[in-house]
Specification:
Layout (H helix, E strand, L loop, with lengths): L1 E5 L3 H13 L4 E6 L11 H6 L15 H4 L2 E5 L2 E5 L4 E4 L4 E3 L2 E4 L3 E3 L12 E3 L3 H10 L5 E5 L3 H12 L3 E6 L11 H13 L3 E4 L3 E5 L4 E5 L4 E4 L1 E4 L3 E3 L15 E2 L11 E3 L4 E5 L4 E3 L4 H19 L14 E6 L2 E7 L8 E7 L4 E8 L2 E8 L5 H10 L6 H7 L4 H8 L3 H12 L1
Parallel strand pairs: 1-2, 1-7, 2-3, 7-19, 9-16, 10-11, 10-16, 11-12, 18-20
Antiparallel strand pairs: 4-5, 5-6, 8-17, 13-14, 14-15, 20-21, 22-23, 23-26, 24-25, 25-26
Length: about 425
């Protein structure tokens, strides 16, 4: 049997390793479109800071690791999938047949439609090649303008600040990290960054970039800035364009079931390009974080082997949840689950501007379905556990609405087992 994996990021590598463990004699091909060994994009900020060298970003430190597992590596990118013929056409001109296929191509940077976005000195921050170009320009004192202050943008900003540049950030949204934080939390992060010396423009667009040394950047608020480097961090999207006309159902990402299988039997998806069920919101989502990618890869690989052996349902994804923990210049913020709330739900918010702390909890019935926090590090694990576990809080829901800081007592009372909660309630009645 031949298992073909498109994408050599964390999901692809973990899937290949899992298949090899479960099917020692099967053939495995791992297709990746970058010249370097498989690496983690999440390690690129640490490379920019100087905490690791390029080899420190590699997913596996032994250069012969995949070869020793008899995993065939191909340096190419997929151009077209023929689901009926079970073949993939690569940009190298090669056509590869498969028995099972995993789409694990991850995400690609969004290219904003801005005049001058292709000028010399304008770079995304997504690949090791991008990192090399940025390090060559982001010298101490260099004027750097970053386009985008979302989750990825804030991580990059941390690395740039550590390099000693003069940093300006432009965000179209009315606050920083608008897809992760509400107005109060996003505003607190902006205030923190400005206090650290970062110039922040929210509710602002980059209208044009004029080539030159330095670059000239025109903003929608009338401001004109000079920059030695412009970094485009305007977000990412699933890298699935090559699946057009393949017959594989795609929404925002590649739509999968609880086994990570697509609508085409034998074809699976995992990682940042996969759209899977979110048990909190009750919808399918793309949750582009590495822990989800790893778990999806293991489940998909298990089911690929089962499919090849004529079995079904060997592994099941328990669902995905939006999980984000962000360090922005030393300020820790979190976002879990349906942080904006669900229809018919209840909400409580606590803000202490002087101490730089903010906590927002969202409930549906007696379940914590989402939360935000800024500068509130004591209960990060508890918040995640309550949201992911869909723990029924009972009377503790009302207690948290009165005092949201009581997360730990609520967790201890309820999350140790719902039967224990019922027993505690009975004991109170007696």
């Amino acid at each position: 049997m031949h298992h073909l994996i498109l994408g050599a990021g964390p999901a692809g590598v973990i899937a290949a390793e899992t298949i090899r463990k479960l099917a020692p004699l099967d053939d495995i091909t791992l297709v990746g479109d970058e010249p370097e060994p498989p690496y983690s994009r999440m390690a690129i900020p640490y490379l920019l800071i100087g905490n690791v060298d390029e080899s420190g970003t590699y997913l596996r430190k032994n250069p012969l690791h995949l070869a020793n597992l008899r995993i065939n590596q191909v340096k190419a990118s997929a151009q077209k999938v023929d689901a009926t013929a079970k073949t993939v056409q690569l940009d190298s001109g090669q056509t590869v047949a498969f028995d099972t296929l995993l789409v694990a191509t991850g995400s690609s940077p969004v290219r904003p439609p801005i005049p001058g976005i292709d000028a010399a000195g304008v770079h995304p921050c997504w690949t090791l090649a991008d990192a090399r170009a940025i390090m060559a320009l982001a010298k101490p004192g260099a004027r750097v303008l970053q386009l985008g202050a979302g989750f990825i943008g804030c991580i990059i900003m941390e690395a740039l600040a550590a390099r000693g540049v003069q940093l300006s950030v432009v965000e179209m949204g009315d606050r920083m990290v608008p897809r992760m934080m509400g107005p109060t939390a996003g505003g607190m992060i902006r205030d923190w960054c400005e206090a650290k010396g970062v110039q922040v423009f929210t509710g602002t667009r980059v209208e044009a970039i004029e080539a030159g040394a330095p670059l000239t950047v025109r903003l929608s608020n009338g401001t004109q800035l000079s920059a030695d480097l412009v970094i485009s961090a305007a977000g990412v999207k699933p890298a699935i364009e090559f699946l057009a006309d393949s017959g594989i159902t795609c929404l925002l990402g590649v739509l999968t079931d609880e086994h990570l299988q697509t609508n085409v039997p034998g074809i699976f998806a995992a990682g940042d390009c996969a759209e899977a069920f979110d048990k909190v919101s009750g919808k399918t989502i793309v949750s582009a974080i590495q822990p989800n990618a790893a778990e999806q890869a293991r489940v998909a690989a298990t089911n690929m082997v089962a499919f090849a052996q004529g079995r079904v349902g060997a592994g099941e994804l328990k669902g995905v949840t939006q999980i984000n923990v962000l360090d922005t210049l030393g300020l820790i913020s979190t976002s879990f689950g349906a942080w904006q709330g669900l229809p018919g739900g209840e909400h409580v918010e606590l803000t202490d501007v002087q101490s730089g702390q903010h906590l927002s909890l969202q409930f549906k019935d007696d379940v914590l379905v989402g939360c935000n926090s800024v500068g509130w590090t004591e209960h990060v694990g508890v918040m995640r556990g309550l949201v992911e576990g869909q723990v029924r809080l009972g009377a503790w829901k009302d207690a948290l609405l009165k005092d949201p800081t009581q997360l730990m007592p609520a967790y201890l009372a309820c999350a140790q087992g719902q039967s224990g909660w019922s027993g505690a309630q009975d004991a109170r009645r007696r």
